[in-house]
Amino acid sequence: QFYDLLHIFEVNGYPSENNYYLFNGDFVDRGLFSIECIVTLIGFKILYPDYFFLARGNHEDKSMNVRYGFRIEIMNKYEDERILDCFDEFYKFLPLAHVLNKKVLVLHGGLFNDTNGSLDQIRKIYRFVAVPSDGIMCDILWSDPREENGIYPSDRGAGVYFGPDVTEKFLKNNNLTLLIRSHEVRMEGYQIEPGEKVITVFSAPNYCDQAGNLGALIKFRGGENL
What we know:
Layout: H1 2-12, E1 21-23, H2 34-47, E2 52-54, H3 62-68, H4 70-78, H5 82-91, E3 97-100, E4 104-107, H6 119-123, H7 136-142, E5 144-145, E6 151-153, E7 160-162, H8 164-173, E8 178-181, E9 190-192, E10 198-201
């Protein structure tokens, strides 16, 4: 949704040394301008490598691009699948998570199938691969929060559902205060999830030109309390 990406910059200012950005995955698929979106983001990363950040989402993967539209867009515009292969190689270098001010964890989907999960487990992931169908890397790109406590299989067929108790324990064990994730449409563009320790931020308004949702971003001002 390239024009919505530009609107974010119009509303919140263009990236600069004084205006940091972190985009939380799903830059391609399900739209006519995925090329324009991802090339713009890459351009800003090159321009401001220390102030502009990109995280991998579950759609930063060739198998998803074949199913959900990015491959078709590339073939329509360039008739050369090698371009998709280049983007697929790029995906493998994207970080899977970020920690802000040592307090806020940002990742695309959610937590993983381990009630004693740690940041060290995320740090140790070998990420330079296609998104696997199970395991920690798969979970943090595919999982979703739910109101019920515990961890249980996701209807998506990948990742897990994790409850407020799981979030609370993970944050406490890792000296964190908040989890920010994306991955799911929210009608207001964001949602404070059950337990109030997870916030979903979804920045694509009227997703797929039919969802009717608003788009949102979350802004941290820094300082001790972010």
